[in-house]
């Protein structure tokens, strides 16, 4: 099992940390001494997660803040509150997400739901929190991607899937966007000389409520997707305690590098100890990543110049 190094005094902000991978990441970081902020959509479930962590680690510092990544106003409210407090952020884990929503839905701001929740919300949050990240001595931003990024494609002509909607295709696009965002932020950090590491991770095939929900979302009459077929075929699968380790490795390992991508080291990266993952060819295109960044700025209204020191 991957051992998280001492995190005493470090502040970790983790989205989607009321259950699954996010909660386990929060638990392991709190156990290593980090001050943990659970950024969750449901305050009640966040408090339950906090209570569970504190019952195991009575001296842990765990706080709950509400945020809905599908509402930019909520993202801005969280960021403004943290900026007003002024405490440097050492770790930002963009973990929260949705998977394979069966029919096209939109966020409060009119974005396709998976793109808005998985990519545009975390993009806006990260840029708004840049002053606090850059105030820390060696901050890291880790963005959760997925093996589905390998099947993704950025459809600039239909980014919101208004003409074309396939649950896993749109999910793959959002996760490819996450990976490209992480790598583009790494390029910017290097170019500007920031003491900031931006990298990404994927959990392989981990038994989470996200996987279970996605596998159950097949609609009558629809052809089975990769997710449905994978659920039927014997393959390596791991529990949350192991599935979270690429995320923790990216966040805490001295071997994790700027622009890196981390996942399980077993066959097909489905399960195993954490280490470097294969970056899909499309995710390596810096020109497309730059174009996607610009489009995200236009859609969210959050510009790099407004968030950087």
In short:
This protein has 309 residues and is α/β, with parallel strands linked by helices.
What does this structure look like?
It is a single chain. The chain is of the alpha/beta class and 309 residues long. It has a single domain (11-301), classed as NAD(P)-binding Rossmann-like Domain (Rossmann fold, 3-Layer(aba) Sandwich), CATH 3.40.50.720. The protein is built from twelve helices and eight strands. The chain has helices at 20-31, 43-56, 72-85, 113-128, 130-134, 167-192, 209-215, 226-232, 240-243, 245-252, 286-300, 304-307, and strands at 11-15, 35-40, 61-66, 91-94, 139-144, 196-201, 261-264, 274-276. The protein has an eight-stranded mixed beta sheet, with helices on both faces. Residues 211-220 and 225-230 have low confidence and may be disordered.
Helix percent band: 40-55%
Could you give the distance between the termini?
Answer: 38 Å
Quaternary structure: single chain
CATH superfamily: NAD(P)-binding Rossmann-like Domain
How many helices?
12
| CATH architecture designation | 3-Layer(aba) Sandwich
Count of the domains: 1
**Strand-pairing-aware structural class:** alpha/beta
Shape: globular
Q: Which fold does the CATH topology refer to? A: Rossmann fold
CATH class: Alpha Beta
Q: Provide the spatial order of strands within the biggest beta sheet.
A: 3-2-1-4-5-6-7-8
Number of strands: 8
Task: Enumerate the spans where pLDDT stays under 50 for 5 or more consecutive residues.
Answer: 211-220, 225-230
What is the percentage of strand-forming residues? 5-15%
């Amino acid at each position: 099992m991957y051992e998280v190094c001492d995190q005493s005094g470090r502040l970790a902000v983790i989205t989607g940390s009321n259950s699954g991978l996010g909660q386990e990441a929060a638990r392991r970081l709190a156990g290593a001494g980090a001050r943990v902020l659970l950024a969750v959509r449901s305050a009640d479930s966040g408090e339950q997660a906090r209570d569970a962590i504190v019952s195991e680690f009575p001296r842990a510092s765990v706080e709950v803040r509400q945020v809905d990544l599908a509402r930019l106003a909520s993202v801005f409210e969280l960021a403004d509150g943290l900026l007003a407090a002024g405490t440097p952020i050492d770790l930002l884990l963009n973990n929260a997400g949705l998977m394979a929503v069966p029919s096209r839905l939109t966020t409060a701001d009119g974005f396709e739901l998976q793109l808005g929740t998985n990519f545009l919300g975390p993009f806006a949050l990260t840029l708004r929190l840049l002053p606090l990240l850059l105030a820390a001595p060696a901050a890291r931003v880790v963005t959760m991607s997925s093996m589905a990024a390998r099947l993704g494609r950025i459809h600039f002509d239909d980014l919101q899937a208004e003409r074309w909607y396939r649950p896993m295709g749109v999910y793959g696009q959002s996760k490819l966007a996450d990976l490209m965002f992480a790598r583009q932020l790494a390029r910017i950090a290097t170019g500007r000389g920031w003491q900031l590491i931006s990298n990404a991770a994927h959990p392989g095939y981990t038994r989470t409520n996200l996987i279970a929900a996605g596998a159950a979302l097949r609609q009558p009459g629809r052809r089975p997707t990769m997710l449905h077929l994978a659920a039927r075929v014997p393959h390596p699968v791991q529990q949350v305690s192991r599935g979270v380790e690429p995320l923790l490795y990216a966040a805490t390992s001295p071997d994790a590098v700027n622009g890196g991508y981390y996942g399980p080291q077993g066959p097909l990266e489905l399960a195993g100890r954490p280490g470097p993952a294969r970056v899909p060819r499309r995710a390596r295109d810096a020109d497309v990543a730059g174009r996607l960044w610009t489009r995200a700025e236009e859609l969210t209204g959050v510009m790099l110049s407004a968030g950087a020191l």
